[in-house]
């Protein structure tokens, strides 16, 4: 059996696909998997590390509004559709799983033209334009958030949660703390801004460090490669005096870091929320304000479940962020309750369910 998974461009679109691929191989070792991804180096790096066969599709995100960039994107999307048709004709898969985003659109449309069964995974609480457009051709639609259910036909839709890779769920707390030399007696705060980093979060944290590092905590700060040198230079005067601040540019495997964390501060991408929640981490979420506000909807879903506090991006000052982190450190009962509710909100078997359903659809 041959299956195609389509998605990419960000770690948040790749990680769920990799999680499903892991489960597909476990459930059917004879299955032949092919991933169609973007031309970004992140895609090749992550899929290569996962040992997956991948094919790059030269397309770009479609910008919001009318502009010259939109015209360029439309032309490239047309070319990507032609390439996708050629790939699918050559691979002849029994089914295609679209994981959303700009890569999946030409692949799903091509699969429809070639009469290949399509499943779709919707990552956000507020479905993006790509998913809404291609959902009309899907035989099965799985949702990471219950809040998205009213946008799709109920007969075709199932709430599965967002797939999480085995390495995230299996990492041990001890492994994570030993890797960084962390103090087991201190509350561990993991601050991150996605695979590219987030300047707003980095600068707010650096500004809050003088007060935060007086508290009984330790901070692991995933800055993003582009922000690393500037952030470390700004943080050095305080961090070197007090210790307990561990900056990292980028890590390939988040499992040990999430296993070590008590509190996670970061954006509100579906994958990030799912990974932190399945590990039982309390969360302070600072949603990325662009892309149609999808992350704010994701963040509010977890906040409503009791597993997170939402801090809008334009309110993310050193004072505001420092107060929220300090409050969690000083009120560990509240932090523990957020942790419990985040874990209860999570879907640890999402990847298994999607893999099972995709195989069943392909065999019909």
Explain the layout of strands and helices.
Layout (H helix, E strand, L loop, with lengths): L1 E5 L4 H17 L4 E6 L3 H9 L4 E3 L11 H24 L3 E4 L5 H10 L4 E5 L6 H6 L5 E4 L13 E3 L6 H5 L2 H8 L6 E6 L6 H14 L4 E6 L5 H15 L2 E4 L6 H6 L2 E4 L3 H9 L3 E4 L8 H11 L3 E3 L7 H13 L1 H14 L4 H14 L1
Parallel strand pairs: 1-2, 1-4, 2-3, 4-5, 5-6, 6-7, 8-9, 8-11, 9-10, 11-12, 12-13
Summary tags:
7-stranded parallel sheet, Rossmann fold, elongated, 2 domains, 13 strands, alpha/beta, 364 residues, 6-stranded parallel sheet
Low-confidence stretches: none
Number of strands: 13
What structural class is derived from the secondary structure elements? Answer: alpha/beta
Strand content: 15-25%
Please name the CATH architecture of the largest domain: 3-Layer(aba) Sandwich
According to CATH, the fold-level topology of the largest domain is: Rossmann fold
Report the CATH superfamily of the largest domain.
Glycogen Phosphorylase B
Shape: elongated
Radius of gyration: 21 Å
What's the domain count?
2
Describe the strand arrangement of the main beta sheet, using strand numbers: 3-2-1-4-5-6-7
- Major beta-sheet overview: 7 strands, parallel
Residues in helices, as a percent range: 40-55%
Determine the number of helices (DSSP H or I, runs of at least 4 residues).
15
Distance between the termini: 12 Å
Structure overview:
The chain is α/β, with parallel strands linked by helices. The chain has two domains: 2-164 and 348-363, 3-Layer(aba) Sandwich (Rossmann fold); 167-345, Glycogen Phosphorylase B (Rossmann fold), CATH 3.40.50.2000. Helices cover 48% and strands 16% of the residues. The protein contains 15 helices and 13 strands. It has helices at residues 11-27, 41-49, 68-91, 104-113, 129-134, 166-170, 173-180, 199-212, 228-242, 255-260, 270-278, 294-304, 318-330, 332-345, 350-363, and strands spanning 2-6, 32-37, 54-56, 95-98, 118-122, 140-143, 157-159, 187-192, 217-222, 245-248, 263-266, 282-285, 308-310. The strands form two sheets. The protein has a seven-stranded parallel β-sheet with strand order 3-2-1-4-5-6-7, sandwiched between helices. Strands 10-9-8-11-12-13 form a six-stranded parallel β-sheet, with helices on both faces. Strand 1 (2-6), helix 1 (11-27) and strand 2 (32-37) form a beta-alpha-beta unit. The longest helix has 24 residues, at 68-91. It is elongated, with a radius of gyration of 21 Å. The mean pLDDT is 91.
């Amino acid at each position: 059996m041959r299956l195609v998974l389509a998605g990419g461009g960000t770690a948040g679109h790749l990680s769920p696909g990799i999680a499903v691929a892991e489960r597909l191989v476990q459930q059917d070792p004879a299955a032949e998997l092919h991933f169609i991804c973007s031309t970004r180096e992140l895609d090749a790096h992550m899929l290569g590390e996962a040992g997956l066969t991948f094919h790059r599709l030269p397309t770009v995100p479609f910008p919001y509004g009318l502009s010259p960039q939109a015209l360029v994107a439309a032309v490239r999307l047309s070319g990507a559709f032609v390439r996708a048709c050629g790939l699918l004709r050559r691979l002849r898969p029994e089914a295609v799983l679209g994981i959303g985003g700009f890569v999946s659109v030409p692949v799903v449309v091509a699969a429809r033209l070639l009469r290949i069964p399509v499943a779709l995974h919707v990552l956000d609480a507020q479905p993006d334009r790509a998913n809404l457009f291609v959902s009309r051709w899907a035989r099965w639609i799985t949702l990471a958030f219950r809040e998205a259910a009213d946008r799709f036909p109920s007969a075709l839709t199932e709430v599965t949660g967002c797939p999480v890779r085995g390495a995230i769920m299996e990492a041990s707390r001890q492994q994570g703390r030993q890797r960084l030399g962390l103090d087991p007696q201190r509350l561990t705060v993991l601050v991150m801004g996605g695979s590219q980093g987030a300047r707003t979060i980095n600068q707010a944290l650096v500004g809050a460090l003088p007060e935060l590092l007086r508290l009984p905590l330790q901070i692991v700060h995933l800055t993003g490669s582009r922000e690393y040198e500037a952030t470390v230079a700004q943080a050095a005067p305080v961090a070197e005096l007090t210790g307990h601040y561990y900056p990292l540019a980028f890590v390939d495997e988040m499992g040990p870091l999430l296993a070590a964390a008590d509190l996670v501060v970061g954006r509100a991408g579906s994958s990030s929320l799912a990974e932190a929640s399945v590990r039982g981490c309390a969360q302070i979420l600072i949603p990325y304000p662009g892309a149609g506000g999808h992350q704010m909807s994701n963040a509010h879903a977890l906040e409503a479940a009791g597993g997170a506090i939402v801090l809008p991006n334009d309110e993310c000052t050193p004072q505001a962020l420092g107060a929220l982190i300090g409050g969690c450190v000083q009120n560990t009962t509240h932090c523990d309750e957020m942790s419990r509710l985040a874990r209860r909100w999570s879907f640890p078997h999402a990847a298994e369910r999607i893999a099972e359903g995709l195989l069943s659809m392909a065999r019909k």
